[in-house]
Amino acid sequence: MNPKLKEKLMESLTAVLPITLIVLALSVVLVPMDVGTAVMFTVGAVLLVFGMGLFQLGAEMAMSPLGEGIGVQMERVKKIPVIVAIAFVMGVIITIAEPDLQVLAQQVPSIPNKVLIYSIAVGVGAFLALAVVRILKRISLSKLLLALYGLLAVVSVFVPESFLAVAYDSGGVTTGPITVPFIMAMGVGMAAVRGDKDAASDSFGLVALSSVGPILAVLLLGCFFNPQDAAYTPTLVPEVATTQDVALTFAGGLPHYMAEVAMSILPIVAVFFIFQMMTHRYQKRQRRRVLVGFAYTYVGLVLFLCGVNVGFGPVGTVLGRSLAQPGYKWLLVPIGMLIGFFIVKAEPAIQVLNRQIQSVTSGAISARAMNRCLSIGVSVSVGLAMLRVVTGISIAYILIPGYALALGLSFVVPPIFVGIAFDSGGVASGPMTTTFLLPLSIGACEMLGGNVMTDAFGVVALVALTPLIAVQLMGVAYRMKMSRVEKRAAPAFDGRDEIVELEEEWA
Questions:
Q1: Contact 379, 443 (CB under 8 A)
Q2: Does 351 or 263 have the greater pLDDT score?
Q3: What CA–CA distance (Å, rounded) separates 397 from 461?
Q4: pLDDT of residue 423
Q5: Whole-angstrom Cα distance, residue 218 to residue 104?
């Protein structure tokens, strides 16, 4: 086996195994599960491990080099209208290619699927173009985010509450496994050409700004369509009694995801060939490596989505309904927090982001530290989401103070942490959140007799919110640590010619 592939598979196993063991343990201790359903969940977990491993390797070999190459060329063009046009088109293409967007579109029947998808794609394209202009013009990310989220707050006033959670969920859903590696690498490529002291900080923030576009697009659609008609289509839990039933269930879903991922990947492959013909950037060996990377990405995403949607999603619904039984409902909060702590590590785009951060910061912010920080943040967010399911409190009471705190912190932490934090918010809410945590929340809400549109939806929005605060608090700690180090390193001066020995203090 390829050593690199083996490494990625081991990373995937480490990420997926904890959440798998937690769910299986719950099925034994608290919420008994049919043997067939448990087997289906386990098979889904195996597909997740292989799918995520192959995807990560593919993204590293194909998506990242392509995104970085386009970013380099954009920075060299120096013609802002051309750069804006390229960024807009790429934003639209990769958003339409995002598999999670199809899931969201199916959950909002009041708006035609194509209208929703293309509106969101245009929103991402427009805000990706804005993000690129920000890098070129060196506009403060904190000030820009403050203005944009202020705009969202104003528009939110005119949108019915039944549609508010769906709109904010869309911001996290559309920055998934296809979008993130490409956008992150594009930012790195643009920053690499600049090479100034602020380049590393400015390379982050593209995902953050791209996440605003979908929210605004869906909020505007909510003003023109009738969101009261939006109703959630409950997740169907297939009845499986034998291993043959399990095999047939997965076999039945596989062709759908093969076609879906093919439609997602092909436009990006076309972009690669067009880009290569125009720039001749990649040598023969590099071209072969990128194409092999696309193949890994394709197979990995097919396995991942099939495993998540067929194996994990239905079990999330079953688990949510079981935990919402009388006498158990308050267990939703601690169990949700436990699941949230581990599930974020199973998001494929998270691993891409964390490695990108470690590379750009030369190890100053390690992937391990980011994983721990994001796990804590997502744990809190899932706990809050389960609390909403149990109590029915409005998501606005959490989102408004949460974003106010996040935006306030952005003015006191080092700029690089602002970009990383807001990028992390969009990345944390990926396929695992959409297809496991959302069904978990919906299953519990249905059992408790709550309003699915107002109480269950919003879990993706909360998962996207808390990393903003958690990562920036890490930035506050980092700044305090650096300040102490600088004070210790500065020699004392009292007006006398004296040599200050620092060795003892550093020891």
A1: no
A2: 263
A3: 13
A4: 85
A5: 11
Whether 437 and 323 have beta carbons less than 8 Å apart is answered as: no
* Residue 131: closest CA among 206, 198, 243, 58: 206
Helix, coil or strand: residue 336: helix
What's the one-letter identity of residue 310?
Answer: V
At 2, give phi and psi (nearest 5°): -55, 125
Q: Residue 436 and residue 453: Cα distance in Å, rounded? A: 17
Find, among 341, 308, 334, the residue nearest to 467 by Cα: 341
DSSP state of 365: S
Q: Compute the half-sphere exposure of residue 89: CA atoms within 13 Å on the CB side of its CA.
A: 11
Which pLDDT does position 72 carry in this prediction? 83
Alpha helices by DSSP H, listed for 241-395, are 243-279, 284-306, 313-323, 332-343, 348-360, 367-391
**Measured between alpha carbons, how far is residue 31 from residues 331, 340, 411, 445 in Å?**
12, 18, 46, 16
Q: What confidence score (pLDDT) does residue 99 get?
A: 67
Region of 172 (left: φ > 0; alpha: ψ -120 to 50; beta: rest) is: alpha
Judged by average pLDDT, the poorest of 50-59, 298-307, 331-340, 493-502 is 493-502
Burial 260-287 (b: 16+ CB within 10 A, else e): bbeebbebbbebbeebbeeeeebeeeee
Maximum distance among all alpha carbons in the chain?
Answer: 86
Higher pLDDT, 457 or 398: 398
Packed helices 348-360 and 179-194: angle between N→C axes, nearest 10 degrees = 10
